[in-house]
From TrEMBL:
Record's catalysed reaction(s): Thiol-dependent hydrolysis of ester, thioester, amide, peptide and isopeptide bonds formed by the C-terminal Gly of ubiquitin (a 76-residue protein attached to proteins as an intracellular targeting signal)
Superkingdom per UniProt: Eukaryota
Name of protein: ubiquitinyl hydrolase 1
Organism: Strongyloides stercoralis (Threadworm)
InterPro entries: Papain-like_cys_pep_sf (IPR038765), Peptidase_C19_UCH (IPR001394), Ub_carboxyl-term_hydrolase (IPR050185), USP (IPR028889)
Amino acid sequence: MSWSLPGHMKLPYIKSLIKNKTGILETSIFFVILDSNFKLKQNIFEKLNNENVEVKSLCSLKDCNIIAFEIVPEATDSCPVFALNRNDHFNDIYIIKAIDGVTSFFFGMPLVFQYRPSITKVSDFYKDVYNRLSQYYLKDGNKNSTYNRAVDASEHLRGRYPFEIVAVDNSFEWCAICDWTKFCRGCSIEELGEFVSSDIRNIAIHWKPSSLYLNYQSVMDLMCADDESVEREKEEYRKPVSLTTCLNEFVKPEILDDSLTCNFCSKKTKMEKKFQIQRQPNILIVNLKRFVYIPSSGWVKSRKAIEVPFTNFTIVSNGYTYECYAIVNHYGAIGGGHYTAYTKVNNKWYIFDDSSYTTVNIEEVDVKNAYMIFYKKQE
């Protein structure tokens, strides 16, 4: 499913959108946020439970995956447990960051399982995890004819599982049971007793190396069925927005965040800010707000395409009409980039790029990357 949302939207609103589309109750929707490496963002757990938090404050737009789960308790005493697929690589040379010589890598979609503390058997929990992951696991009958059984290290498991389930903390790298001085990567839940312990909140599905590389179908782990809204929103996003729409958004009334003292009643109240065009100029310069500051991402550039009318542009009803005579484009990001300019001289359009210039047809004028647009009143 897909929606285009402004950054100030809050999580309860997203839950309501999901409910309206799927019928899932808001109380059954659980959010987690992962980075591009599918590593859990630990520092925002508390924010996810705050109904007033805005989406833009949760994570960077460049490094953010917001995942929604439906969790319907299987019993009144059921507990959810969050899981990530993990594979550990051993380093020949290592430093304090990987003091035990192991670096953990995470892959695939995150998963949520349920168990009943001191009731769910570890053996049954293993079966549940395996059944959920079986769609990614290549069965013997589907293996390539060149498959060599002699090199499959999982053969020694004798019918058991191609992974080990270990109890971990929120980092999914370190054990949730052992003291940190032991540098334990996670105790096997089999070693903790016959039944799943109530202390377990996160697990790492630690794959055996050969099982992972020979049997796991990594191409399948992130596949999902797109709702028709996904393509619809992509098409909508790719559509250019008109310059008139930008102008209307600029002059639209805005409620200020901070309350101010009213000049009439002397009470603190919300104030409205509004821009108005008092006089139509002969020369109109439009500076597009391409750079926006987002708390979790810093300054980011909007690459939204703009429809720029070359003639008969108006800023008020029944007012002057304007024709475009110059456009400045910006390519790149805020920290660096390149400017070019198009200018109309004696009814011919020219492109100026550093010290060079050449004539172009009006159809060749790049308006999608416009940063500043210059108009003059039409005679």
